[in-house]
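Box S2. Input/output pair 1.
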Amino acid sequence: MEFCPTCGNLLRYEGGGSSRFFCSTCPYVAYIERRVEIKKKQLLVKKSIEPVVTKDDIPTAAETEAPCPRCGHDKAYFKSMQIRSADEPESRFYRCLKCEFTWREE
């Protein structure tokens, strides 16, 4: 969408032999060139995702009975953390004692 630099109204498009944007309120006209020029190229790099909780964050002292979604083992270490706003419930992070898979329950 393009807006008129004179009055601020939305410019209308008119195609055909000479394509142009024009303002229906004032006499402003902007002719469109057929040639497109890329002024700046930038290579986008995907950032790596950092885990919220690492192995070192979950202590090995607190155990509970929680079935592992990966291997089905019934015991896991756990830690509760407040990672969202204060009015949201805390999140519980688990790490399986057998396969060391880490998962989260809200």
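Box S3. Input/output pair 2.
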Amino acid sequence: MAGGGGINNKLLATALSIADAASWSCTLALLVLILMGSLREGRGRMSEVEIETFDSGIVMRGSSTLVGQQPCDEIYVVSEGETLHSIIDKCGDPFIVERNPHIHDPDDVFPGLVIMITPSSSA
């Protein structure tokens, strides 16, 4: 009987080793699937974005707009070459300064500045 117990222990150890390896393999496969799913969902978004907050506002560095962003969404990111006047003309919201207390000087609008607007229905 003593010899049979050793074989059973060895068989049990082997079975546990196989179960442990299978468990890690399933965990790794699940992790890969989750990562692939998150990468697939991330398409069409900015890949690298830095967001900084200052007294003068919020600045996003990277791509200035999201893929598919309408020109006059409620959250608007100022692009290169835009002025407050051009944004007002584009979006039809003459009250941008009043709705954005972080804009202290209407002439101090720069690329990456995030502003809230109320887009007109015709824009």
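Caption for Box S3: Confidence is low (pLDDT under 50) at residues 42-47, 63-70. The CA atoms of residues 51 and 60 lie 5 Å apart.
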